[in-house]
Amino acid sequence: MSTCPLFAVEQARDADRPNILFIFTDDWGWGDLGCHGHPYLKTPNIDRLAEEGTDFHRFTVASGVCSPSRTAVMTGHFPARYTIDGHFAWVESNARRNMPDWLDPNVPTLSRMLQSAGYATAHFGKWHLANNMIPDSPLPSEYGYDEYGAFNCAGQQMPVHQDAARAIAFIEKSAAANKPFFINLWMHEPHTPHHTLPEYRRRFPELDDAHNVYASVLSHADDRIGELLDALDRLELADDTLVIFSSDNGPAGSGRPGKITTMYDSATGEGFGIGCSVGTTGGRDGRKASILQGGINVPFIARWPGKIKAGAIDDESWISAVDLLPTFCDLAGASLPEGYQPDGKSQVATLLGEKSPIREKPLFWKGIPGRKGQSYSILDGKWRLLTSANFEVLELYNVNRDPLEQNDLKSSHPEIAGELLEKLHAWRETLPEKPNPECFSKYRAENAGPLPPEEKPAFEFDPSR
């Protein structure tokens, strides 16, 4: 793997290389922000990012579910290239869905590229590029992180609410060492189980139980984001730090309050269940698990004082999660490994205010195997095509004129649908048929059965890690 020459790293550090804090939430819908007009959710700290930065309305992730969405961020590739189409679960489920048991730690990763360019790298929060139920899966440190505290991974599980405190300590250490930092802060909220605290529930006494729980967990997450912003101010690092807030996919559940139940998750503990998942898509069709806009068009707010325009809205530029790796490497002066080609492109100019209403590089989606409805999609220029699993044309949209995809044009533009279908077929032919067997757990054997009790992962958190 090629790396930046030392002189180039030092030169970049003296110029405009920012620290990078990437906040990636879990199931946070586009409409679940005060600055996006939500009637009762309070997100003053995220709203502050929008006031001091630019709110990009047409950002899309690479999947409607967690693990493939995160794979795209880590690799700069469409997750189907690694046969990662759904969430990582126990090995029997992974095998049944033709998935590996973890993301290959040997593929080029964003964290390793920035690490090679002289950045201090850390990951705090959700992982889910494996699963805590698979104890022989690689740890986050094997992907290019100097430090981590995580859950939904092998080993000990970090409590979900310790993410910001751990990140602040890492920022302080990096600042003391005069070293630029890259932090993935992948928050649990508002994924189930919903872990509430009484002080946050008391903030919303007028709401019924389901809406109260949902508002309280988002308010708690927003407070922790505020702690991070305050730390950057205190350390006089705000002007030197790119902060991005986004989500891995659209909101879970139906959006309507349901039965109030509790549930237990082996990675995060006990909390409220899916009946409290009342997130909103801001008028977009589809939700989590869908490759419609409600599942993939999520919040994306970027702040870099003096560089990114403050108080601005970009509702024209189509930015994708696969663009983050080349964008961050561009900003960091990090070389891409020899032979590596990202599926995305650097969007530095877009972040700095140059709008890109026509996307030059196409985007592809492969949905969850076995689901009915939209299973594959391509966005090429101003057109997006959605098909079924057997490539039957379902929908065609001019996304520049119709970003919320309300007016299906497949009947009036059959020639465009046909051209896009050919491109989608050609892309499908580049994908592997089977996952890499080197990414199989030792428990993936015929009739593997349940995990032996003596090998179940520990759930206590070791603060020394």
Helices and strands in order:
Layout: H1 6-14, E1 19-25, H2 44-52, E2 54-56, E3 59-60, H3 66-75, H4 91-96, H5 110-116, E4 120-126, E5 147-151, H6 163-176, E6 181-186, H7 198-201, H8 209-234, E7 241-247, E8 262-265, E9 269-272, H9 293-296, E10 300-303, E11 312-314, E12 319-320, H10 324-332, H11 348-351, E13 359-366, E14 376-381, E15 383-387, E16 393-398, H12 414-429
Parallel strand pairs: 1-6, 1-7, 2-11, 3-12, 4-5, 4-6
Antiparallel strand pairs: 2-10, 7-10, 8-9, 13-14, 14-15, 15-16
Helix pairs in contact: 6-8
Name the descriptors:
465 residues; alpha/beta; Alkaline Phosphatase, subunit A; 8-stranded mixed beta sheet; 4-stranded antiparallel beta sheet; 12 helices; globular; disordered N terminus; disordered C terminus
Protein architecture, described:
There is one protein chain. The protein has 465 residues and is α/β, with parallel strands linked by helices. It has a single domain, classed as Alkaline Phosphatase, subunit A, CATH 3.40.720.10. Helices cover 25% and strands 17% of the residues. The protein contains twelve helices and 16 strands. Strands 5-4-6-1-7-10-2-11 form an eight-stranded mixed sheet, with helices on both faces. The chain has a four-stranded antiparallel sheet with strand order 13-14-15-16, with helices on one face. A two-stranded parallel ribbon has the order 3-12. A hairpin with a 3-residue loop joins β8 and β9. α6 packs parallel to α8. It is globular and about 55 Å long. The two termini are 28 Å apart.
